[in-house]
Amino acid sequence: MRVPSECHEGAVKVPWDARLVASMDRLHGHPFVWGRTDCLQVAFHALDALLGAAHHVPQWQNAWTTAREAVRRAKSQDPRLIPYLEQAGASPVHVGFQQRGDLLLAPVGQSVLPRVHVCLGGRAVSAAPHLGVFFSDSAPLLALPGLVIYRPERG
């Protein structure tokens, strides 16, 4: 399901936004599976499309199979997205200035794991146990309390 960063159509390199949309379209409709198609893994697929496979952190892929394992891993090894994004050169963005390719991190109750949405302009993609990988309107997300938006570099 990964999208190579060096996709070419003939001699023309495919732009990052086309890679991003293609990657998210391929994931759309997949069932939710912890460690494979949870919202954090959807974000990593987006980062693969934006930055290329060199950023990928294999210890997070297939690293959990249940919500309990994901939370335990988050507490013990800090696989939280914000420190990783900052290390990869992503910068925070104010609500209202989001663009295609930005990651929207929304707190979920008392959980250490946020729900991550990938902004595709007027829509967003994420994953949830009861919905699988899904598209939604991005406008309501912007009103969520505690929402943090990060803009990864684009390549």
TL;DR of this structure?
Helices cover 28% and strands 21% of the residues. With 155 residues, it is an alpha+beta fold.
Structure description:
28% of the residues lie in helices and 21% in strands. By secondary structure, it is α+β, with helices and mostly antiparallel strands. The chain is built from 4 helices and 8 strands, in the order ββααααββββββ. The longest helix has 13 residues. The strands form 2 sheets. It has a 6-stranded antiparallel sheet. The N terminus is likely disordered. The chain has one domain: endopeptidase domain like (from Nostoc punctiforme) (endopeptidase fold (from Nostoc punctiforme)), CATH 3.90.1720.
Write the layout of secondary structure elements.
Layout: E1 8-9, E2 12-13, H1 16-27, H2 39-51, H3 67-77, H4 81-87, E3 91-93, E4 103-106, E5 115-119, E6 123-128, E7 132-137, E8 148-151
- Here the CATH topology equals endopeptidase fold (from Nostoc punctiforme)
Major sheet: 6 strands, antiparallel
> Per DSSP, what share of the residues sits in E-state strands of 2 or more residues?
15-25%
- Following the backbone from N to C, one meets helices and strands in this order, namely EEHHHHEEEEEE
Distance between the termini: 19 Å
Which of globular, elongated, flat, extended, rod-shaped describes the shape? Answer: globular
How many domains? The number is 1
**CATH homologous superfamily, by name?**
endopeptidase domain like (from Nostoc punctiforme)
Mean pLDDT: 81
Number of strands: 8
Sequence of strands across the biggest β-sheet: 3-8-4-5-6-7
Task: Please state the CA-atom Rg, rounded to the nearest Å.
Answer: 15 Å
Q: What is the helical fraction, as a range of percent?
A: 25-40%
What is the CATH class? Answer: Alpha Beta
